[in-house]
């Protein structure tokens, strides 16, 4: 069979600045997807010739975008390293706004937060509050807002890819953003590039880039905390669907006669496995807990009511995940958020429900994993989106980029 002498991967590559840029982006994408890799592995994944890969790696090292990490006396890996710019990631929740500034020049992180009832009322929490918080962080770090490389925004609700606004049924939860194009409005206020997405999508991006989903091209992530959301990675890309509303696992209907959900439906997963629903079920039994970590602690200490509600939440979650996974067939399913930190009692019921739903008979290779990034997942996903926007990346998260204070409920053994 005849071959094209300029086809990538056969030892020769067509030249020209446009082709070169495309080859560089292909190699960068491979490093973002798979992490540190040998040049031989990069040549296979990108279908570029070894000589082209070697040339691009040399240029990336000279620019400070990549480094060579020795593994042993004979092998070394190419890894991305961001050494340029200052970036901000923000997370907009129904009751709070948090933000983190990442300064790659100094290797430092600055955090700030606003809470409803203290810093803004129920009608607040909108673009102006986010912009003011970013100005505060920039002043603290000694930088000008206009010098930021970019800003990532994680919204506690889906964002339409058509209008750039929050979905209609989510606007009651986020009144300060009603009919407001998130990225466009903040970009105008700040004068810098802004990328905005659903918090679960960005948490999935972080877990896929640096955590439980690294190395797999098809990945399903579910965030279970105050609300429940999902993020889907297909063929190495976050899948948002035609309107940006893909991955709303929390609104899969499990019981048509169940409690009314804020989305207007009945019996959604959110009504049985979110923090509020779990606390409400416990309260009806006479067990009063104020937050999901207290329920997790109670279950670990042998409280039968706490153990029961976590087990049943896991069963419901397992059914929803099984229904979703039968459609998209991910290689890995990761459970994050507070519920993902509940440990064996919850994971056992998730796996049991998946078996009852015959998921493993249809897709025996699917792995269930606890998410690894933790409470910072959405913020770090915002950072990942800005790094991609600025054609940068990090193969391994530096220690300074992650929070050093958080409860660890991640043991699932």
What would the keywords be for this entry?
5-stranded mixed sheet; 16% strand; 37% helix; alpha/beta; 13 helices; disordered C terminus; 413 residues; globular
What does this structure look like?
The protein has 413 residues and is an alpha/beta fold. It is 37% helix and 16% strand. It has helices at 17-34, 39-46, 50-63, 127-141, 182-190, 199-210, 270-273, 275-284, 292-300, 304-328, 344-356, 359-362, 377-389, and strands spanning 66-70, 76-80, 86-92, 96-103, 108-115, 150-155, 194-198, 219-224, 228-234, 237-238, 332-336, 367-370. Helix 2 (39-46) crosses helix 3 (50-63). The longest helix has 25 residues, at 304-328.
> Helical amount among residues, as a percent range?
25-40%
Reported for the largest beta sheet, the result is: 5 strands, mixed
Spans of at least 5 consecutive residues whose pLDDT stays below 50 are 1-14, 404-413
Terminus-to-terminus distance: 53 Å
Q: What would you call the shape?
A: globular
Strand content: 15-25%
Say how many strands there are. Answer: 12
Order of helices and strands: HHHEEEEEHEHEHEEEHHHHEHHEH
Radius of gyration: 22 Å
> Strand order within the widest sheet?
5-4-3-6-7
Q: Helix- and strand-based class?
A: alpha/beta
How many helices? The count is 13
Average pLDDT for all residues? 85
């Amino acid at each position: 069979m005849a071959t094209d002498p300029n086809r990538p991967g056969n030892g020769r590559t067509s030249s020209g600045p446009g082709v070169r840029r495309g080859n560089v982006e292909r190699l960068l994408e491979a490093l973002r997807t798979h992490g540190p890799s040998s040049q031989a592995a990069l040549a296979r994944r990108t279908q570029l010739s070894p000589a082209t890969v070697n040339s691009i790696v040399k240029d990336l090292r000279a620019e400070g975008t990549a480094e060579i990490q020795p593994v042993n006396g004979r092998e070394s890996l190419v890894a991305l390293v961001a050494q340029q710019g200052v970036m901000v990631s923000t997370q907009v929740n129904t009751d709070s706004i948090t933000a983190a500034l990442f300064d790659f020049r100094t290797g430092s992180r600055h955090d700030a937060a606003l809470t409803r009832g203290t810093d803004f009322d129920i009608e607040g929490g909108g673009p102006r509050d986010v912009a003011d918080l970013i100005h505060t962080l920039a002043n603290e770090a000694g930088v000008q807002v206009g010098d930021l490389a970019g800003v990532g925004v994680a919204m506690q609700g889906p964002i339409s890819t058509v209008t750039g606004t929050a979905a209609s049924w989510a606007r009651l939860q986020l009144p300060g953003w009603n009919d407001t194009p998130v990225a466009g409005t903040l970009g105008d206020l700040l004068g810098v590039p802004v990328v905005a997405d659903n918090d679960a999508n960005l948490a999935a991006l972080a877990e896929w880039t640096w955590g439980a989903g690294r190395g797999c091209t098809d990945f399903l992530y579910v965030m279970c905390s105050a609300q429940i959301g999902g993020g889907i990675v297909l063929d190495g890309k976050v899948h948002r669907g035609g309107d940006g509303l893909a991955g709303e696992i929390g609104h899969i209907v499990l019981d048509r006669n169940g409690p009314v959900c804020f989305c207007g439906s009945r019996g959604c997963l959110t009504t049985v496995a979110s923090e509020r629903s779990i606390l409400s079920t416990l309260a009806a039994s006479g067990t009063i807990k104020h937050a999901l970590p207290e329920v997790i602690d109670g279950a670990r200490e042998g409280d039968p009511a706490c153990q029961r509600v976590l087990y049943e939440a896991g069963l419901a979650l397992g059914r929803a995940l099984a229904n979703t996974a039968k459609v998209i067939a991910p290689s890995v399913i990761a459970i994050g958020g507070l519920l993902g930190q509940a440990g064996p009692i919850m994971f056992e019921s998730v796996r049991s429900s998946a078996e009852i739903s015959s998921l493993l008979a249809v897709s025996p290779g699917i792995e269930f994993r606890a998410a690894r990034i933790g409470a910072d997942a959405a913020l770090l996903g915002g950072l990942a989106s800005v790094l991609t926007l600025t054609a940068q990346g990090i193969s391994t998260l530096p220690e300074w980029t992650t929070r050093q204070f958080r409860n660890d409920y991640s043991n699932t053994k």
